[in-house]
Amino acid sequence: MTDYDFAVAGAGPAGSAFALLAARAGYRVLLAERSHFEKARFGETAPPEFRAALTRIGLDHLTRAPYGRDAPELVSVWGGDQSLSRNHILSPFGAALHLDRQKFDEALAFAARDAGADLRLACRARFVQQPDGSHIVQLRDGADARATIAILSTGRSGGNVGLPYTRRHLDDQIGVAAHFVVPAGDFKPRTLVEAVPSGWFYLSALPTGSAVAILVTSAPLVPRGRAQRLRWWLEALARTGLIRAALHGCRIPEKLSVCDARGSYALRGAGKNWLAIGDARIAPDPLSGQGIHWAIDDACSAIELVTSSGWGEAADKMNAKTAREVEQYRADRQFAYSRERRFESESYWTMQATL
User: Fold this and answer.
1) Which of 58, 142, 170, 211 is deepest in the core (most CB within 10 A)?
2) Helical H segments across 124-241, by residue range
3) Residues of the domain holding 108
4) Per-residue pLDDT tens for 78-98?
5) Given phi > 0 = left and psi -120 to 50 = alpha, else beta, which region is 21?
6) Is 344 part of a structural domain of the chain?
């Protein structure tokens, strides 16, 4: 049985960045990822300050093709019928980014591997805590391991890996997404956001030359059948002006993808020799555009904390950090949604006002 200092469950941005930094510091690290990065991943837009986060860990090349492309402008239709533009020219970090999350996440995981982490793909991990506080790591490939510290980085749907981890959801939001093939040169590299009666859309141009349009809505509003869901989604898209104009000339999608978009946080995200990071610790509403930036920052903070503090102190500090951030996040979210009053009688917006 192989021994590790850290076993990380989940090779998303937080887990891979933590594994990278720990391996560079000389620790023995296991990084277990349940997929082969074969499916599209969502969370494509990153704020300008994300560039500094990547530079901090020596991976600023991931801001360029084929992983990322500049998004110098955010245009929104929110709280009124007129579009408002915010250019990132005044940001000291430069433009925002649109990421191909599938390629980006894979590259980050392989960077951790190249730094010395033991990367296991298509391999789920489950932890069994031992009397001394260490963990037996049960791996799907049957090759169990032992780790001093367990790191949970399985995203906003994370859990069920054997740790005494509990989570609270703040809403019932879901993202319904479609990919579009964009005619060459016809799509500006902007982030577009537009409110509609059933929720709100955002549109991002990906480094691959395609674009993704996602309707963030309430889960009970989404039809169950695929054909009905597509018809409903297209009807919502038809209510937009900005988004629809940007997609003019693109072929109508034939299928949709559904992803978890609930804001949530860990009620208990740290304990004896284990810690939740990234979206597993706190997952913001996609409207904030901060999720992936928070994930990298979380990894940097966590590695500093667990290598410089006693474990009890580290767990207390992370739990206190979560409590502070949830309070601020609630206030920021309420402010953002309260600005949109055109559809306040619609069920989606009525629900947002009561959260």
Assistant:
1) 211
2) 226-238
3) 2-41+100-169+264-330
4) 999 999 998 877 678 888 999
5) alpha
6) no
Q: Which amino acid is at 124?
A: R
Identify the three-state secondary structure at position 19: helix
pLDDT digits (tens, 9 = 90+) for 205-244: 888 888 999 999 999 999 999 999 999 999 999 999 999 9
pLDDT beyond 70 at 321: yes
> What global pTM score does this model have?
0.93
Q: How many domains does the chain have?
A: 1
Tokens of 285: 């509403």
Contact of 329 with 282, CB cutoff 8 Å: yes
Among candidate residues 212, 196, 272, the one with its CA nearest the CA of residue 246: 212
Tens digit of each residue's pLDDT (9 = 90 or more) over 143-179: 899 999 999 999 987 777 999 999 999 999 999 999 9
Please give the structure tokens belonging to residue 135. Answer: 């963990």
If DSSP codes are grouped into helix, strand and coil, which group holds residue 331?
A: helix
Residue 200 lies in a domain: no
* Six token digits for residue 231: 């018809």
Q: Which two tokens stand for residue 187?
A: 């799509």
Position 353 in a domain: no
Rounded CA gap, 18 and 13, in Å? 8
The residue behind tokens 């206190």 is 320
Distance CA 107, CA 235 (A): 37
Residue 239 φ then ψ, to 5°: -80, -10
Residue 312: Cβ-neighbour burial (10 angstroms; 0-12, 13-18, 19+):
exposed
- State yes or no: pLDDT of 306 exceeds 70: yes
Contacts 24+ apart (CB under 8 A), 217-220: 217/173, 217/174, 217/176, 217/348, 218/171, 218/172, 218/173, 218/174, 218/347, 218/348, 218/351, 219/172, 219/173, 219/174, 220/172
Distance CA 320, CA 88 (A): 32
Other C-beta atoms within 10 Å of 323: how many? 11
Is 202 within 8 Å of 84 (Cβ atoms)?
A: no
